Amino acid sequence: MCGPTSGADSRGVPLEIIPPLYAAGLPCHGDDSALWFSESPAALEVAKDRCLDCPVMRECLSGALARSEPWGVWGGEIVERGQVVTHKRGRGRPRRQAA
Fold first, then answer.
1. Binding site as annotated, residues for [4Fe-4S] cluster
2. Which candidate in 8, 37, 41, 57 could, as Cys together with 88 as Cys, close a disulfide (CB 3.0–4.6 Å)?
3. Would you say 63 and 57 are in contact if contact means Cβ atoms under 8 Å apart?
4. What sign results for the dihedral spanned by CA atoms 63, 73, 1, 80?
5. Which pTM value belongs to this model?
6. Each residue of 27-64: b (16+ CB within 10 Å) or e?
7. Residues sharing a CB contact under 8 Å with residue 70, sequence separation 6 or more, in sequence order
8. CA pair distance 74, 58, nearest whole angstrom
9. Which pLDDT belongs to residue 73?
10. 32 near 10, Cβ under 8 Å?
11. What's the pLDDT score for residue 5?
12. pLDDT tens digit string along 45-91?
């Protein structure tokens, strides 16, 4: 993650794309910023929902894809290994398929 001194916010979003009036009110900023990097699929869905009204949602997602972010919710989407995934699978072994 980049810090503010390197021209990006705490999530790595370049500060140039965040309008100054919105920077403090972005849903990913605050005490629960770890929600966007949770291991819990349910928590990631909550983070995605919080992104829906974000004024920089598109820029956030396009920046994450351009940087090949390794994981997290970016722009209302779950990103893993630089790619958007539809949902995050829970930890552990996959469920057994019925025969």
1. 28, 51, 54, 60
2. 41
3. no
4. negative
5. 0.67
6. bbbeeeeebbbbeeeebbeebbebbeebebbebbbebb
7. 80, 81, 82
8. 9
9. 95
10. no
11. 33
12. 999 999 998 888 998 999 999 999 999 999 999 999 999 998 666 66
Q: Which residues are annotated as a binding site?
A: 28, 51, 54, 60
Residue ranges of E strands in the chain: 71-74, 77-80, 83-85
| The length of the chain, given as a count of residues | 99
Look at the block and give the residue holding tokens 């009204």.
Answer: 53
Distance CA 22, CA 49 (A): 18
- Sheet with 83-85: list strands edge to edge: 71-74, 77-80, 83-85
**Taking the chain, what is the end-to-end CA distance rounded to the nearest angstrom?**
44
